[in-house]
Specification:
Helix content: 25-40%
Bound molecules: ligand BJW
Structural class: alpha/beta
Strand order of the largest sheet: 3-2-1-7-8-9
Radius of gyration: 19 Å
Shape: elongated
Number of strands: 9
Distance between the termini: 24 Å
Mean pLDDT: 95
Strand content: 15-25%
Order of helices and strands: HEHHHHHHEHEEEEHEHEEH
Number of helices: 11
């Protein structure tokens, strides 16, 4: 793959790179995206029936079981070349922050050292009424399980539509978008807010944005560089193009 020379030099000289990821980066690990017309979750399921607090209140068993199914799926997957390239890139730069909308934990498993999870994490649960975090739970006593502290239902610790993102995570992500030297946006449809506003926040602060995706998104016209292809192909190639010489020099 050939990259623009000014992109490579921008990456090589950056002191702080920020990467916003979405479901597309995990697609090559075998985890469905949300909005793919054939294989995305929302092609088969209605988000209003599964990803809102109202849906959980109406049918907690259905929603809990959907997340149990996804938790089991994720436990059988591995980080792919895209996740691994971002973890490796962090070792080449003074600072790299990954901001992810994904709840699958694959960036942690790949070893990305600085990670902000905007939409929570599928492996954690909290209670529905008071948001107590709960470390140990079992489905044996019923679905959904019950909070040992207050007796309300347990729910996955993810952010559903209409819910606020974790305040601290969103604040750190916004600050990172404003202050970094280069902002990469990987595998997201750029449709869901407030995550979709982060690249625009970066642009308003004169930070150049690189988009890596299989197709155009609402962000595409604003990106300085648009790299069309799979994250698991483009990210390792970008790492190689920017830092391969360094490795040879060290050998
Ligand atoms: C590849 C690839 C490969 C494939 N390589 N690429 C402003 C305007 C309009 C609406 C709103 C607004 N502000 C807030 C809203 C409402 C709402 C919203 O944004 N709605 C829009 C959909 C219209 N936002 C919210 O409700 C948020 N809360 C909030 O704002 O609170 C304040 C508030 C409250 C009340 C009213 C108003 C404001 C919360 C959003 C929570 C999103 N939750 C979900 C579910 C999380 C839990 C779970 O996993 O079940 O998060 S929805 C789902 O979408 C999930 C994702 O994180 C998120 C983003 O999806 P993503 O990652 O972009 O995936 P896809 O499938 O959309 O795209 C994949 C991309 O990858 C595609 O582009 C492919 O081409 C590409 N791709 N393979 C590279 N190999």
């Amino acid at each position: 793959m050939v990259f623009a020379a000014n992109l490579i030099s921008c990456l090589q000289s950056a002191r702080w790179v920020v990467v916003l990821t979405g479901a597309g980066i995990s697609a090559e690990s075998g985890i469905p995206t949300f909005r793919d017309a054939q294989t995305g979750y929302w092609a088969k399921y209605d988000p209003q029936e599964l990803a809102t607090s109202g849906a959980f209140r109406r049918n907690p068993q259905l929603v809990w079981e959907w997340y149990s199914y996804r938790r089991a799926l994720v436990s059988q997957t591995q980080p792919n070349a895209g996740h691994l390239a971002l973890a490796a890139l962090a070792g080449k730069l003074p600072r790299l922050t990954v901001i992810t909308q994904n709840v699958d934990g694959l960036h942690q498993r790949a070893g990305s050292p600085e990670l902000i999870e905007l939409h929570g994490n599928l492996t954690r649960v909290k209670c529905f009424d008071r948001h107590h975090p709960v470390a140990q739970w079992s489905e044996l006593a019923g679905i959904p399980p019950i909070c040992p502290v207050c007796g309300s239902w347990l729910r996955p610790d993810v952010v559903w539509f209409g819910e606020n993102l974790p305040f601290d995570a969103l604040q750190r992500a916004t600050e990172a978008a404003r202050r970094c030297d280069l902002f990469l946006v990987v595998g997201t449809s750029s449709l869901v807010y407030p995550a979709a506003s982060l690249p625009m926040e970066a642009i308003q602060h004169r930070v150049a944005v690189v988009e890596i995706n299989l197709q155009e998104t609402p962000l595409t016209p604003y990106a300085k560089w648009v790299l069309t292809g799979k994250a698991g192909v483009v990210l390792p190639a970008l790492l190689q193009a920017a830092f391969a010489d360094e490795k040879e020099k060290g050998e």
